[in-house]
What we know:
By secondary structure, the protein is of the alpha+beta class. It has helices spanning about 70-85, 105-115, and strands at about 50-55, 60-65, 90-95, 95-100, 120. The chain has a domain at about 45-120: Translation Initiation Factor Eif1. The radius of gyration is 25 Å and the shape is elongated.
Amino acid sequence: MGKRKQASSSSKPGSKPDAKPTVWREFGEGSAAMQRGIPDLPPQQQSLRVQTTRKGKGGKTVTVVSGFQSSPETLAQLLKQLKAKCGSGGTVKDDTLEIQGDHRQTLVQLLVTLGYPAKISGG
Length: 123
C-alpha cells in the first residue's frame, strides 16, 4: 500500500501547511502600553472619601471608599484588612472599595490609623 498525503488546512495552492495566519495587533501582547498607568502613591498623598450608598445594590447598604491612586494589588491587601476589622464582606470595583453594611465611622478611623487622610462624604 502506498502512503497517503496529509490534507493541508489551507485552501490556497502553494501555501505552507504549518504557517500561522498573521494577526495584526497595534501594541502587541504584554507591552508596557497596555498596562495600567496609575501611580502607586503613598497613603499620605491620597485623599479618600467614605460614603454609604444603596443605589444599585438591591436595597442593601454599602460603604464606598473612593479616591485611591494605588495598584490593584495594594487595594486588595487594604480591602482584606478592612473587611477583617469590620467583620463583613466587600470588593474592589473601579479603584473604589465597597464594604457591605454601614461602616463609615469605623473605616475612617481605620484609614486614618493606616496613614490615609479620609473624610466622610455625603449624608
